[in-house]
Amino acid sequence: SPPCAYENKGTVHARYTRYFGTTGDASPSLSHYALTHYKQWEKSIEEWQRPILQDSSLPSWYKSALFNELYFVADGGTVWTEIMEDVDISGGIRSEDGGLPAQPTVIKEYGRFAYLEGQEYRMYNTYDVHFYASFALIMLWPKLALSLQYDIAGSVIQQDLTERLHLMSGQYSPIKTKNVVPHDIGDPDDEPWVRVNAYLIHDTAHWKDLNLKFVLQVYRDFHLTQDRQYLQDMWPICQAVMESELKFDLDGDGLIENSGYADQTYDGWIVTGPSAYCGGMWVASLCVMCKMARLLDSEELYRHYKDLLDRGSAAFEKLLWNGKYYNYDSSGRDLSNSVMSDQCAGHWFLRASGLGDGEFQIQSALKSVFDLNVMSFAGGQMGAVNGMRPEGVPDRSSVQSDEVWIGVVYGLAATMIHEGMQEEGMRTAEGCYRTVWEKLGMAFQTPEAYCEKNIYRSLAYMRPLSIWAMQLALNTSQKDQTTTA
């Protein structure tokens, strides 16, 4: 990709220029290198894939999905740039209790990385969606995953008070509020990293999931990389976003509430009061904050988060658990007790981070999701519908509740595998693969969503990279079995 000019930032060069220069002979030099090294690359790819391809316990469709869904890493409008000497990821902002270095080592060494939410949804590093897709990066290109996290952290502590109109509310509000995670790092037609939050539908400063997804990813990344410097750098940012999140606990019971509009990644599905999705991620985030506080010898902060965790988890169980699964929300509306396929997202990340035990409630909730959202939907052949009524018909209250989100399904399948439900997890994920890659003929353009009647939305999308969470779950379960043996 050619260099691109950024306002007041000089010229930004593509990553390959580090090795092949910035002059006119870079392209032939790069081509020559590829032609003289491709055999070694092919050999390395075969060595990487061989253990999975030769594993007879894994079905063929899964092997195809696992490797082929990676098309989006390269085909998702991806940019990989060198960081220039005058760029400060925090915009020059430093806080008294610890700030990010202007140019963290991982960014200096590995550059900046960005990929689109989708080829139709043109925003870079859309963070509520990257939460799912991030498993592919942290497992295969961990330095790029950490680089992306540093960029997000740098934008957290910045603000842009320019007012703009948000389409759903019809109201004006600032482009970027301080100490909250941005929705995205910009539009490819504008200036990514310089101007963030290209998303115009809602004011995402009031979304309930973005801050939590940052905290959960920080600990997951540390668990998989054991990069202590990364943990130390991210700790003040985690505290800042959790403090911002705490204002959503309006009644002081230790559990956040949703606002009565679509204030999370399901941006067309209204949620009111404490909810299974955001509430579960809040409880999980408090759990990892306690863990990080202990790792960093901050006993006072540990007690602070442990108090919130104890009260918040008690409120979560009291307000949302119905004996079989967690209700969609606690508003008492007619559809409050819908079964959400993504209700265990917070627990999923705990398990992926080596935390969380198998709990009766989680296993019961996953069984309810499998019985209703999977097996009672489309004959059990199309994955898990986002929302299902307990009587066995899809929740049609919104444009998103009766959709199947492929990336969510792969994450759900991973959660099932973590909880010892491998057969159910594989059956759940297989429905999506068969539907997208075989029935609908959308190979290498996996959409965000489809409905039972084969209506699809947003071809070539980031979220299905979450299939690598299934591989992490399989790896973890195999280790557990080896340890037990």
Automatic annotation (TrEMBL):
The record's subcellular locations are: Endoplasmic reticulum membrane; Golgi apparatus membrane
Q: Which GO annotations describe the biological process of this protein?
A: carbohydrate metabolic process; central nervous system development; cholesterol metabolic process; glucosylceramide catabolic process
Keyword annotations = Cholesterol metabolism, Endoplasmic reticulum, Glycosidase, Glycosyltransferase, Golgi apparatus, Hydrolase, Lipid metabolism, Membrane, Sphingolipid metabolism, Steroid metabolism, Sterol metabolism, Transferase
Q: What class of enzyme is it?
A: hydrolase
Which pathway or pathways does this protein act in? Steroid metabolism; cholesterol metabolism; Lipid metabolism; Sphingolipid metabolism
The protein's annotated catalytic reaction(s) are: a di-trans,poly-cis-dolichyl beta-D-glucosyl phosphate + chenodeoxycholate = beta-D-glucosyl-(1->3)-O-chenodeoxycholate + a di-trans,poly-cis-dolichyl phosphate + H(+); a beta-D-galactosyl-(1<->1')-N-acylsphing-4-enine + H2O = an N-acylsphing-4-enine + D-galactose; beta-D-glucosyl-(1->3)-O-lithocholate + H2O = lithocholate + D-glucose; a beta-D-galactosyl-(1<->1')-N-acylsphing-4-enine + cholesterol = cholesteryl 3-beta-D-galactoside + an N-acylsphing-4-enine
The cellular component terms of Gene Ontology attached to this UniProt record, alphabetical and capped at eight, are: endoplasmic reticulum membrane; Golgi membrane
Q: What is its EC number?
A: 3.2.1.45, 3.2.1.46
GO MF annotations for this entry? Answer: beta-glucosidase activity; galactosylceramidase activity; glucosylceramidase activity; glycosyltransferase activity
The organism's place on the tree of life at top rank: Eukaryota
**Glycosyl-hydrolase family 116 catalytic region domain boundaries:** 111-470
| SUPFAM superfamilies for this protein | Six-hairpin glycosidases (SSF48208)
- InterPro entries listed in its UniProt record: 6-hairpin_glycosidase_sf (IPR008928), 6hp_glycosidase-like_sf (IPR012341), GH116_catalytic (IPR006775), Non-lysos_glucosylceramidase (IPR052566)
Family to which the UniProt record says this protein belongs: Belongs to the non-lysosomal glucosylceramidase family.
What protein does this entry describe?
A: Non-lysosomal glucosylceramidase
**What is the phylogenetic placement of the source species in the record?**
Eukaryota, Metazoa, Chordata, Craniata, Vertebrata
